[in-house]
Specification:
This protein has helices at residues 29-38, 77-89, 164-172, 211-223, and strands spanning 6-12, 15-21, 49-55, 61-67, 72-73, 97-101, 106-112, 115-119, 130-131, 140-145, 149-154, 182-190, 193-200, 205-207, 231-234, 240-244, 258-262, 264-270. By secondary structure, the chain is of the alpha+beta class. It folds into two domains: 6-112 and 264-276, Roll (Diaminopimelate Epimerase, Chain A, domain 1), CATH 3.10.310.10; 130-256, Diaminopimelate Epimerase, Chain A, domain 1 (Roll), CATH 3.10.310.
C-alpha cells in the first residue's frame, strides 16, 4: 500500500507526528522504510513518528503508530491524543468522544478544543527497582508499563542539568528490560508537580514530551510518596500534562488513569517524491 501523498502535521505537547488516513496494517517493509525517511529532520518533513488512521470495529478508529525509525509500536499516548483530535475535527466520528483501537488496547478519548484526554486501561503496579549508573543519577530506576515499557529515574536534583543524550542510551538498553525501554528522568517540583525528560526508544533520542512517560513518572513518584494525584507534569517543550489516577482496584491494578494535554494541528501538505529520497 503506497503511503498517501497528503498528510497533516500534528503536535501533542511537543511530540510531533505525521498523520495519514490509511490502514497502517497494510504497510510493506518498503513503506516502513519510507516512514523513517519522512521522519528525518532537516532532510524531510521531520517527526517523532507517524500515525495511520482507518476504520475500526463498531464505529471505532483503528490507529497504527510507527516510531521515527519505521518500527511499529503498540502505543503512543501523545500520538493517540493527536489521532483523536484529528478524527473529531475531520468528522470521522460523531461528537467529541473518540474510541481508538491501538496495539495496547481500546482507548476512549474526549476532545475539548485543543485539549484531549485519554482514559487508559488498568495499569499494573511499578516493578521492583533495577540497578543503574550514570553521573548525577540515583543507583536504581523503576520499571513501569504504560502501553510500552518505561524506566523511571527519580533524580532528586535539577533534571534540566542532566546530559540526557549521554545518560539515556545505556539505560534504554538495560539488560533486565529485554524489549528495551523509554527512560524518564524525573524531578519532583512540589506536592502535585513534577518535571519529566524522556529518552525514547525507536526515536533513539530525547523528545520534547512523552505522554506515556508522564503517566509512568507520575505513578512512580506517587508510589514513592513524593506527589499526590492529580499530578501536573512539566515537559521539555514547556507544555504541561495532567495525570489522574485512582486507588488500586480489587484485582490489584491502578484504576481510572487519565492523561490530559494539548494536541494541535500544525499544517496540511502533500509529499513529493523527494521527501523520501535517501
Amino acid at each position: 500500500m503506497p503511503i498517501p501523498q497528503r498528510f497533516v502535521k500534528m503536535s501533542g505537547g511537543g511530540n510531533d507526528f505525521l498523520v495519514f488516513e490509511a490502514d497502517g496494517r497494510a504497510l510493506s517493509d518498503a513503506d516502513r522504510e519510507r516512514v523513517a525517511l519522512l521522519c528525518r529532520r532537516g532532510l524531510s518533513v521531520g517527526a517523532d513518528g507517524a500515525l495511520f488512521l482507518s476504520g475500526g470495529d463498531e464505529s471505532r478508529i483503528h490507529l497504527d503508530y510507527f516510531n521515527s525509525d519505521g518500527g511499529l509500536a503498540s502505543f503512543c499516548a501523545n500520538g493517540t491524543r493527536c489521532a483523536a483530535r484529528y478524527a473529531a475535527s475531520r468528522r470521522m466520528v460523531a461528537g467529541p468522544d473518540v474510541v481508538l483501537e491501538t496495539g495496547w488496547g481500546v482507548i476512549p478519548a474526549r476532545v475539548s478544543g485543543d485539549t484531549v484526554s485519554l482514559s487508559l486501561p488498568p495499569l499494573t503496579h511499578p516493578g521492583d527497582p533495577v540497578p543503574i549508573s550514570g553521573r548525577g543519577l540515583p543507583s536504581t530506576a523503576t520499571p513501569m508499563h504504560v502501553g510500552v515499557p518505561h524506566l523511571v529515574v527519580l533524580t532528586g536534583s535539577d533534571v534540566g542539568a542532566l546530559d540526557v543524550a549521554a545518560l539515556g542510551p545505556p539505560i534504554r538498553r538495560h539488560p533486565l528490560m529485554p524489549d528495551g525501554a523509554n527512560v524518564d528522568f524525573v524531578q519532583v517540583l512540589g506536592p502535585d508537580r513534577i518535571a519529566v525528560r524522556t529518552f525514547e526508544r525507536g526515536v533513539e533520542g530525547e523528545t520534547l514530551a512523552c505522554g506515556s512517560g508522564t503517566v509512568a513518572s507520575a505513578v512512580v513518584a506517587s508510589r514513592a510518596g513524593a506527589v499526590s494525584p492529580p499530578v501536573v507534569c512539566e515537559t521539555r517543550s514547556g507544555a504541561a500534562f495532567t495525570v489522574e489516577f485512582g486507588d488500586t482496584g480489587a484485582d490489584g491494578v491502578i484504576c481510572d488513569a487519565v492523561l490530559s494535554g494539548d494536541a494541535r494541528e500544525i499544517f496540511t501538505a502533500e509529499l513529493t517524491e523527494e521527501a523520501w529520497q535517501p
